[in-house]
């Protein structure tokens, strides 16, 4: 594990949009991209503490694709050698997704990985709701080990893109109130299809890019558009904060290669 380097690493994947057949927009094979991320882990030797996938596992209307998703997640778990933890997004089907590992009895849950605690939340409706917020408060009542990481689909912060400015978590303030004063070290989210970082109430928030497509950031004030660019993040929990690095699955020819002693 990366613990030996003095940092805890989370491989953060989001917005996969797997379809049961064919390719999303004629190009995107979400399951194959999960397997490509697994190959990246093997080739680089990165040793995360956990893999977290923050929702939109399938494209809307493809609830029968979760078996395909689970097979690809299993491949990623074998490559990383650590648990793959998933939450649901607005494209996901809460009933069909119960066949995914860890989701049989509910989509909001606590998972302990060594001495890290993960709070996996269900924002598939666009909000968490009073009942889930109360559950978060209870779960965080006592600190745990090296701290807690919260994962959900909708970020508790607005995107800078005009078309996505209101697409964040609807009850963000209620969530932040529940996290205030707790041992939460980071919040991981997705949904925007572009990377973003923020610090809210002193808590680092890392919005991961999408494995399916990346937002065209200059598409205009009244439209959304996507590049065929598959990306994910490495999130490092450091002694004094959090660092996040976006990684592209594209591998252009290198300009140079040097041996590092």
From TrEMBL:
GO molecular function: hydrolase activity; metal ion binding
Superkingdom of origin: Bacteria
The keyword Hydrolase is annotated on this UniProt entry: yes
Residue span, Calcineurin-like phosphoesterase domain: 8-195
Keywords, comma-separated and alphabetical: Hydrolase, Iron, Metal-binding
Entries under Gene3D superfamilies matching the protein: 3.60.21.10
Pfam families cross-referenced by the UniProt entry: Metallophos (PF00149)
Sequence similarity: Belongs to the cyclic nucleotide phosphodiesterase class-III family.
Listed PANTHER family: CYCLIC NUCLEOTIDE PHOSPHODIESTERASE CBUA0032-RELATED (PTHR42988:SF2), PHOSPHOHYDROLASE (PTHR42988)
Protein name as it appears in the record: 3',5'-cyclic adenosine monophosphate phosphodiesterase CpdA
Organism this protein belongs to: Microbacterium faecale
Taxon lineage: Bacteria, Bacillati, Actinomycetota, Actinomycetes, Micrococcales
